[in-house]
Design goal:
It contains five helices and three strands; from the N terminus they run αβααββαα. By secondary structure, the chain is an alpha+beta fold. It is elongated, with a radius of gyration of 29 Å.
C-alpha cells in the first residue's frame, strides 16, 4: 500500500512540478488515503529513512531544500552494460595451453637466463 500511495502523491506533485515537504507527507496520507503513515511502526526512526528504503527508493529521493527535507520523484537510474574484454579481442577459438611438467624447469631456467 505504501508504494501505491507514494506513487499517487508523486504523480500529483510532478504534474505541478512541485516537491513534497516531508513535514506534509503524513497529512497528505491522512487526507488522500484515510490512512496513517507511521515510520516507527514500519521500523524506522525517521520518515526520511523510510523513504530511502530499497523497497521505495526507486520511486522518490529525499533532498534538503531550504530549511527542510522534501520528497521528489526519483530520477531513472542509468542502465549499465557490462563490457567484456574478450569480446573486443575478436578471439575465435580459445586454446588452452598446459605445459609439460617435465619441461617446466628448463623453460623457467631459459627465461631466467634470457633476462640476466
Amino acid at each position: 500500500m505504501l508504494r501505491e500511495c507514494l506513487q499517487k502523491i508523486l504523480s500529483d506533485a510532478s504534474s505541478g512540478g512541485q516537491s513534497i515537504p516531508l513535514s506534509n507527507l503524513k497529512r497528505l496520507f491522512r487526507s488522500k488515503f484515510h490512512a496513517e503513515l507511521s515510520e516507527t511502526s514500519l521500523g524506522y526512526a525517521k520518515l526520511s529513512e523510510l523513504l530511502q528504503d530499497s523497497r521505495v527508493s526507486d520511486l522518490c529521493d529525499v533532498k534538503l531544500q531550504g530549511h527542510g527535507y522534501v520528497m521528489v520523484p526519483a530520477k531513472p537510474k542509468a542502465k549499465r552494460n557490462l563490457i567484456s574484454l574478450a569480446d573486443s579481442l575478436c578471439m575465435g577459438e580459445v586454446v588452452s595451453y598446459v605445459p609439460n611438467p617435465e619441461a617446466a624447469p628448463s623453460t623457467c631456467s631459459n627465461l631466467l637466463q634470457k633476462r640476466a
